[in-house]
């Protein structure tokens, strides 16, 4: 079962820090150096000083970004900048945002969730992880003994029972509010009502949880728990290291948006539409669309209208031409990815990676393709206009059904298969791994 519990979170004292908007930050892995500096400049209490402290030339084994984050955290707690809630809470979290001119509100709640090893319980990953980010986060875990950012988890709730219980609890309460650097408005309501907390925990107990974002941090939390247990530092099954901070959102929430992750492919040289057609034509049904940004938009509209994983859009930068391609050789994919299920083989990103980038383009004499990733059509058109890639590929987004089916089969989707927008903010609430 998925065991969900209320907890006594640490939160910023707004009387000390001022506007909550000035102290929140997105997850560490989407913060580049310029954005990091912008958050440093915004407030001396910005969360970036915890989740991604700046490196300095004088860094050493004893004085580094991790030790500074830990000292900053201690100072903020000692000075009353961060204060632990007196009662155990669930933290209702809503985000209001806009994508391609349409407004959404994503609803969920934050809780601490008992850790389970993948394959042994009801928590499922859907993406591969890398050793580097996990080692980085583990050092931060050890330094701070705090969950500084929440894992993003999804659960089935077609009838909306969990969200209805939460909505009832906050109907007359005013939220704490922040607006991030992208204009996303976040609202937070702490819930202390034991009846609501009990109801939510009961409703969640039989449900599986699928990790949408934060795979590296979840696996790091498992490693941290193992190390603490080996050292004899976990005092029973209710000790904080047994849990991880998680934001839980219904898979049926109307505000749950998965953006496509388009590929900007380089290292192919001045590839033209004719050359691409020659490379792909045996296995794809190709249809020319036209030239320039409007052709790209039309190709994307066709992909959206198609609504399947079968149609890709290809833009050759050398001549500015666009075409769509429908894969017509499933037996080829079955051979190239025979270790995976038919559901995995049918994903557009799987076909693109295994068939186009790893097989057909190299067979056509191309060097190993290199990819960058963007999510919006205007980002694709900007890259094509700036000629920062050789081939642009429009990819339909995977759906929640794909995540549930593939993750539930204990498979992991190809890298960059999903992008849940917007990212969750760090700095709304922290979960101590030392103090209940």
Concise description?
With 436 residues, the chain is of the alpha+beta class.
Structure commentary:
This protein is of the alpha+beta class and 436 residues long. It has 2 domains: 4-257 and 421-432, no CATH class; 261-396, no CATH class. The chain has helices at residues 14-17, 33-42, 48-51, 65-78, 131-144, 161-170, 194-204, 215-230, 273-280, 293-306, 330-336, 342-345, 348-363, 377-386, 400-408; strands at 4-5, 10-12, 82-84, 90-99, 102-114, 123-124, 146-147, 151-155, 176-179, 185-191, 209-213, 243-250, 257-259, 262-266, 284-291, 311-316, 321-327, 370-374, 391-394, 419-421, 431-432. Strands 1, 4, 5, 6, 8, 9, 10, 11 and 12 form a 9-stranded mixed beta sheet that branches. Helix 5 (131-144) packs across helix 8 (215-230) and helix 6 (161-170) packs antiparallel against helix 7 (194-204). The longest helix has 16 residues, at 215-230. The two termini are 22 Å apart. The model has no long low-confidence stretch (mean pLDDT 94).
Biggest sheet descriptor: 9 strands, mixed
The global form is globular
Count of folded domains: 2
For the record, give the distance between the C-alpha atoms at the N and C termini, rounded to a whole number.
22 Å
Give the helix proportion (percent range).
25-40%
Number of strands: 21
Beta-strand content bin: 15-25%
Structural class: alpha+beta
Number of helices: 15
Model regions low in confidence, pLDDT < 50 over at least 5 residues:
none
The average pLDDT value, as a whole number, equals 94
Radius of gyration, Cα only, in angstroms? 23 Å
């Amino acid at each position: 079962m998925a065991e969900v519990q209320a907890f006594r979170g640490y939160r910023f004292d707004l009387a000390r820090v001022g506007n909550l908007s000035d102290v929140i930050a997105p997850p560490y892995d989407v913060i580049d150096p310029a954005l990091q500096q912008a958050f440093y400049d915004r407030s001396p209490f910005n969360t970036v000083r915890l989740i991604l402290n700046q490196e300095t030339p004088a860094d050493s084994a004893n004085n580094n970004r991790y030790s500074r984050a830990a000292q900053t955290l201690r100072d903020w707690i000692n000075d009353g900048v961060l204060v632990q809630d007196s009662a155990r809470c669930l933290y209702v979290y809503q985000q209001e945002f806009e994508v391609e001119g349409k407004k959404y509100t994503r609803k969920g709640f934050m809780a601490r969730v008992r850790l389970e090893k993948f394959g042994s319980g009801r928590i499922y990953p859907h993406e591969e992880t890398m050793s580097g980010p996990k080692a980085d986060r583990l050092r931060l875990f050890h330094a701070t003994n705090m969950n500084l950012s929440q894992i993003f988890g999804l659960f089935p709730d077609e009838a909306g029972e969990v969200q209805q219980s939460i909505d009832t609890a906050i109907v007359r309460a005013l939220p704490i509010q922040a607006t991030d650097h992208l204009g996303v408005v976040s609202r937070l309501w702490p819930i202390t009502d034991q009846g609501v907390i009990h109801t939510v925990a009961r409703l969640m107990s039989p449900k599986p949880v699928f990790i949408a974002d934060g795979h590296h941090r979840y696996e790091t939390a498992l490693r941290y728990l193992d190390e603490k247990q080996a050292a004899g530092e976990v005092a029973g099954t209710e000790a904080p290291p047994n849990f991880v901070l998680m934001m839980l959102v219904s898979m049926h929430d109307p505000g749950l948006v998965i953006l496509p992750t388009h590929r900007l492919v380089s290292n192919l040289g001045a590839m033209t539409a004719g050359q691409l057609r020659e490379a792909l034509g045996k296995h794809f049904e190709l249809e020319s669309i036209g030239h320039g940004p409007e052709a790209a938009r039309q190709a994307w509209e066709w992909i959206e209208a198609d609504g399947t994983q079968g149609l890709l859009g290809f833009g050759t930068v050398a001549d500015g031409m666009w075409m769509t391609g429908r894969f017509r050789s499933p037996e080829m994919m079955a051979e190239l990815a025979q270790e995976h299920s038919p559901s995995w083989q049918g994903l557009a990103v799987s076909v693109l990676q295994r068939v186009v980038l790893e097989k057909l383009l190299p067979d056509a004499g191309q060097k190993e393709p290199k990819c960058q990733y963007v999510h919006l059509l205007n980002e694709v058109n900007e890259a094509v206009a700036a000629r920062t890639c050789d081939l642009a590929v429009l990819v339909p987004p995977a759906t929640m059904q794909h995540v549930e089916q593939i993750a539930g089969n204990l498979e992991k989707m190809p890298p960059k298969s999903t992008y849940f927008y917007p990212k969750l903010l760090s700095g709304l609430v922290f979960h101590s791994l030392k103090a209940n």
